[in-house]
TrEMBL record:
Keyword ATP-binding: yes
One protein family per Pfam: ABC_tran
Organism: Streptomyces muensis
Alphabetical list of PANTHER family matching this protein: ABC TRANSPORTER ATP-BINDING PROTEIN ALBC-RELATED
Keywords on record: ATP-binding, Nucleotide-binding, Transport
Keyword Transport: yes
GO terms, molecular function: ATP binding; ATP hydrolysis activity
Protein name: ABC transporter ATP-binding protein
Organism taxonomic ancestry: Bacteria, Bacillati, Actinomycetota, Actinomycetes, Kitasatosporales
ABC transporter domain span: 6-231
InterPro entries, alphabetized: AAA+_ATPase, ABC_transporter-like_ATP-bd, ABC_transporter-like_CS, ABC_Transporter_VariousFunc, P-loop_NTPase
Length: 295
């Protein structure tokens, strides 16, 4: 097994005759066994990136290597759950799982697929078209995990689920990934649901990588500081700063000791992401051991 699950080098994807860049010059590296959160505002390129990794789109620039090969060459070793969760509407839940089994001979894990369906109390005989959005999500995830993939690509998998189902499915997903060493790449707008589940972060903005690396390293590279509005933050890199009255609160990347003017705490994942979303001009930071120089 290769140590790198996904490697993107100057990856770009343009659409249409004008080649509008959905992704531009993206380089990052994700180690096997990581659970990676892909976050970013609407239109940032998250779905495009996941489709490229799944081999459903081809790059217009650069390269993406998945499980050591071109994505199209390793399709049977990965599973992709797209945002719209395409399933055959006329099939029953049981038929859908049966097709999953037939299409993945030698790989299929009946136990995990059946468990995910059973946890949602879905009737085996129910047709897909009669299911709610959240119930379809459950069937799509059962199909994806049943395939026993080495790489699981999930595009906003929890968006349709009620909070309890979300919590429970996330726990099942993470336990299964940990048990089998599955690499998981999951996009989401709900940062809270990623906290505690992910160990790698990829933040995209306007088609570019803004943050990439092990979550702990990215969090450790930032400090949330509070101090007097007239205190200087030189020479630190200020990601975002807000002043209310006489007080400034900022997210910074310290270049050394912060000094006595500032009270500093470690940011949460949500604070890290929100500050970068509010400050799209902040410089990018990559801590994922890419071979190229800094972005
Ligand atoms: N098939 C396509 N044809 C033309 N443009 C596209 C196509 N797919 C995506 N785009 C454009 O590429 C950009 C990135 O889209 P993408 O769906 O990857 O973003 P996203 O981060 O997943 O957004 P969201 O959070 O809204 O799901 C957008 O500007 C979108 O309009």
């Amino acid at each position: 097994m290769t140590e790198t699950a996904i490697e993107a080098a100057a990856l770009g994807k343009g659409f249409g005759r004008r080649r509008k860049q959905a992704l531009d010059d993206c380089s990052f590296r994700l180690l096997t066994g990581s659970v990676c959160a892909v976050v970013g505002p609407n239109g940032a390129g998250k779905s495009t990136l996941l489709s490229l990794a799944a081999g459903l789109l081809r790059p217009t620039d650069g390269t993406i290597t998945v499980l050591g090969a071109a994505p199209a060459a390793v399709r049977e070793r990965l599973a992709y759950v797209a945002q719209d969760k395409p399933l055959h509407p006329q099939l029953t839940v049981a038929d859908t799982l049966r097709y999953g089994r037939e299409l993945n001979p030698g790989r299929w894990d009946d136990q995990v697929a059946e468990r995910i369906v059973a946890e949602g109390e879905l009737e085996a005989g129910a047709r897909i078209r009669t299911l709610s959005g959240g119930q379809r999500t459950r069937v799509a995830l059962a199909l994806a995990l049943g395939k026993r993939p080495e790489l699981l690509l999930l595009d906003e998998p929890m968006a349709d689920l009620d909070p309890l189902a979300r919590h429970q499915l996330m726990a099942t997903l993470m336990a299964d990934a940990a048990e089998h060493g599955t690499t998981v790449v999951m996009s989401s707008h709900v940062v809270a649901e990623l906290d505690g589940a992910c160990d790698h972060l990829l933040l995209l903005g306007a088609g570019r990588v803004r943050l990439s690396g092990p979550l702990d390293d990215l969090l450790a590279a930032h400090r949330l500081v509070t101090g007097r509005a007239d205190a200087s933050l030189d020479p630190h890199t200020v990601v975002e700063s807000r002043t209310t009255g006489r007080q400034t609160t900022a997210l910074v990347r310290p270049e050394g000791p912060l000094g006595p003017s500032w009270q500093a705490t470690a940011p949460t994942l949500e604070e890290l992401v929100l500050a970068h979303l509010r400050a799209p001009e902040a410089p990018a930071l990559r801590l994922d051991d890419v071979r190229e120089a800094a972005v």
